[in-house]
Amino acid sequence: MAVKVLTMAEMAAASEEPEILFWVGCAGSYDARAQKVTVAFSKILSKAGIKFAILGNEESCTGDPARRAGNEFVFQMSALQNIETLKMYNVKKIVTTCPHCFNTLKNEYPALGGTYEVIHHTQLIQKLIDDGKLSIEGGMFKGQKVTYHDSCYLGRVNDVYEAPRSVLSSIEVDLTEMNRAKERGLCCGAGGAQMFKENEPGDKRINIERIEEALATGSKTIAVNCPFCLTMMSDGVKAKEKQEEVMVYDISELIVQSNGW
Amino acid sequence: MGIAQQIVFIILVAVSGYFAFKQFGKIYRNIRLGKDEDISGNVGERWKNVLLIAFGQKKMFKRPIAAIMHGFIYVAFLFTQIEVIEIMIDGIFGVHRFFAPYLGGFYTFLVSFIEILSVGAFVATIVFLWRRNILKLPRFHKDEMTGWPKLDGNLILVLELLLLVGIFTMNGTDTVLQSMGDSHYPSTGNLAVSSWLGPALFGNMAQGTLIVLERFGWWLHLLVVLVFLYYIPRSKHLHIFLAFPNVYFQKLTSRGEMENMPEIMNEVKSMMGLTEEAEMPPADAELPEFGSKDIFDLGWKNILDAYTCTECGRCTSVCPANVTGKKLSPRKVMMDIRDRAEEVGLNLDSGEAKFIDESKAKDGVGLSKENYNDGKNLFDYISREELHACTTCNACVEACPVLINPLDPILKLRRYEILTESAGPTDWVPMFTSIENSGSVWQIPDARDKWREQLES
Predict the structure, then answer these.
(1) Chain-chain contact of B449 with A69 (C-beta, under 8 angstroms)
(2) In this predicted model, what pLDDT tens digit does every residue of B34-47 receive, in sequence order?
(3) Is the CATH code 1.10.287 the one for domain B289-438?
(4) B311: burial class by Cβ within 10 Å (0-12, 13-18, 19+)?
């Protein structure tokens, strides 16, 4: 399905205003695998008839990894610039496909002078389904075993456990929880700027520990809500040489595939 | 009870009370070595947390078996205070079971209730000793749990057993003595445990032996209470008091929000031309230090957290870095902060001039927290390898039953390393420069919205 996605600048030029800004994030913009999530979520938004826009080249990293690494200067520079951009376009509502962007925009920008209504894409999808704006068919995932990996920044940090599960139930999967789930969910190993550095010495990588748990559920599909979890879990599957049988998908991709959009 | 006993009693209680008070004062002082921070407001929510989480032990029930065991010891401890109050009154005024005649049947109920709880506590304590030393539960056997922390854990449990032995000796012999018709022993009614345990253990003894044993149990219980009073401020067992204020003073801001650094925000704003001239920081200001290098740069709540930690290791057992064999252990971070605070506290108490920072030395000015420098800091306790391994996943924060936040100090130390020392993992440098120069975590020449092409087909 062909979808036309406009930037805020393009909308402004046409004197239009979107209902919501889709904050794509660095991974969603540049990471080849995460781009597919961006595409899938854009399809969902347009299928639901949501008027949305992106910032395009005017978007910068929210600064989350810099801040958690300890680099407040870089965080402030990126964040303050974003806040200026958001102010310029009078942005009030933001949806993100990345729980790190979600957390920083929602919980950290207010102290810097930027307050918005921020939701995660799994929450928005749930709302669209509940409001009857998205008709979902079980399709190819109906009755299939799927396990869901809670990201730390959506789950434990922001207490969002039910929305992603509710979206999964809409495509009638057989949700099989891992031993460590919800507030006890194990990190994929990418947060706190770990994504950008080598591991400290240890017995194993965190994503291996997590993928072993996911594989133990017997699910052939692992659902995630975060581009960094997506990378870590996919790497884990490859490390276990299971890439032929086990797939890792963002929840939005499952919706799109399930409906054949 | 003879007057001599009363005098000994009063002196013992007064002396241990004095030492405990002094020691608790030092802990308060050590907590205040941290930076002032205003943690107030939301009084209703704070008291609700104290009721549910501290008093009600809500978070303990994530591990139900441990929660029930711990619950017995905790509730027994709470209700035994009634007996301790009675012991105080009896000891000071030379009376015996002061409450018994006044409370009558309610006294029987109360003491019976305490006895049933105490049996539970006794079993739980044995299970805890077994779990620590024979079952060797992994969280009690990490690297940081050798030496003193290991001994501390066992000592507390053994002292608890002694407390219970004291109580049951005292109540059991009392029951037998009552049946002998000695008017010194007012009727306690049929106590739930001692009315059968007493005769079973002490039934055949002579009255003289029983009188001595009754006093032995009474004094044993009292002495162990006093030993605890002296011991607790030096032990991880402090959680029995500090859990309450620690829960009350929990930061109520979102877990996802790292504390803002207004001084850096304002500097960046002025660099970006976002501030008025008047708000600009003065040009001649001394180069400031950012983040935390030592306990003086942590907030006082971080140090309260450290003193509240009872080393249960729930945080470490769920830490993704720790479970995959990395050195980081959130519990160790808290223990290190407490050990460092203790070290600084002891040095401050010594008043020795060698701990005065040379650049701050002034004639006639003694050692204080302001001029303190012993050449050490928190980085001597917590290695960089530990700090770098944290994924900021908040599992430790979620796991703590008394709302300790081990993540906050880790991030403050990271800030010091990066901002003040310009050190840290070199792998991070490309990410920093890329965000700074291109607004993305990766330096990629493509346009940020190139992915749109994938939608046009």
Answers:
(1) no
(2) 999 999 999 999 99
(3) no
(4) buried
